[in-house]
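Box 4.2: Ligand-aware structure prediction
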Amino acid sequence: MASFTLQGIPVSRGIAIGRAHLLRPAALDVQHYLVGQEQVEAEVQRLQAAIIQVHKELQAIWSDLPQDAPTELGAFIDVHVLILSDPMISEAPLDIIRTRHYNAEWALVSQIDELSAQFDEIEDDYLRERKADIQQVAERVLKVLTGTAGNAMRSDGIDERSANMIVVARDISPADMMQFRDVAFTGFVTDEGGHNSHTAIVSRSLGIPAVVGMGNASHLIEQDDWLIIDSDAGVVIVAPSTLVLEQYRERQTVLMKARKKLGKLKKTPAITQDGVEITLLANIELPQDAAPALEAGASGVGLFRSEFLFMESSGQEHKLPTEEEQFEAYRTAVTAMKGRPVTIRTLDVGADKPLDTTEHNILNPALGLRAIRYCLAEPQLFLTQLRAILRASAFGSVKILIPMMAHGFEIDQSLAMIEQAKAELRKEGKDFDANIAVGAMIEIPAAALSLPMFVKKLDFLSVGTNDLIQYTLAIDRADHEVAHLYDDLHPAILQLLQMIITAGERAGIPVSICGGMAGDIRLTRLLTGMGFRELSMPAALLPEIKQEILNTRLDALQGHVKKILRSYDSATIRETLAVMGSITPVLPTLH
Ligand code: PEP
Ligand code: MG
């Protein structure tokens, strides 16, 4: 096969080499995980048993048909029995389990997808419509399978099979990404998505190379094709030649060595050459991310995206985590950080993170009932979360961060809800930190333009640059068609950032950045030069940002920072940034 290259949007770092593992859209509606070698036969039997069960059901329906039932009804059932017995359904998915280690549901829908695509190409209308019959039969089998789920265990994530698989899909929802966390895939390639879509965020936090917004990669790439992801360049090379493969393997080794060297900075504080300390914090999605964040040298958690706790059950009947389950999750993160601060953001659902995958806001989800708006509309759910966070605050240093605030009454109502949760806990004799700090995400331009309202009532601010850019520039952060307009150096963004840090300094309250800009090494000098002293990012990016800080002299940058903030010309901004980046007070001294 001839090699070709596809260009997309880089959202993560590094190089991945592996075989394509195609996920068709329907495959995303069911649970999908890889089963370990020793469980393959049990999984095969589970699917066989489900097929037999559906056979029995169809036979029972047949024999229960009333005497006067129309003959077509019997004929339909016959068609379904025939479909079920066809090797395409009764055998091909079993082979998929054996060869690719998919769980039974996933194997079945993959096969159905394949068949559906073939049916779509049939000219004959009657035959083409038989696709619906196949899907109905598959639904029946899936229903039985769901009832028997749990017979097979997921593979433990270090399965060698997944270790060189690159997932290729049209799109992967954040909820589905959460399932993939348990499986050590080597990389992700999606047709859709933007720089800071939540799918991109999860792959970045897993430290896995990924390229999104590839257009139609999932149609051009075939199952098991060899792929190279050059995530820094946003490039995917399909079916590379041996020579190219060798070159990339070498680059991969060099990168790995460099990363290992950076690991030595773990305990070094992030202090600039002129003595300014920058606090580097980690963004996490699940409590189990806290320990690796500490290991990577984080001084705390600057953003715990708690909504991911609510999203782990995609494809299943949706069940929200209880107060007890949330408390355990928050406490796990808090104790893992050993006294370092953990900033727990309250539920930020909506937009590209719907609570329920069946939920569709067809109007404009990004401008809809998202984050704090959702929580204030569902006070019981909000209260449950606040109680759980407060209870976890008795085990370490916790801060509450409220997303998507824009109105004064949202601040007041949130604070009132926190007081109510405290009063309830007090009454019940449960411990919590009575002085817990409460802060707001500044990620809507309205908030950035009315900062006095925020600094008066809150203890800290955290800038969500991903949304601030989305809402200021009016571009959907998840839409690859407008990804070229996503510009973190747009003068409007820089002006807003400057306003936020200045307002925080004047009010004497800390301001951090927890959006993607904080982990972008191109911007480290600019942001610290502007006055930001706390940056929160995916743990995997911490070492390189720390090295950049160690190599920075803030006093030498001031003129350039001023020039950038005064400029309304994109070229001047970029040129000045490049000059700032090239000022090297001391060469890296890592041994
Ligand atoms: C942001 O908007 O920058 C942010 C940190 O929050 P999220 O990416 O989860 O919306
Ligand atoms: Mg946000």
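In the box above, the bound molecule is phosphoenolpyruvate. The first helix runs from residue 40 to 64.
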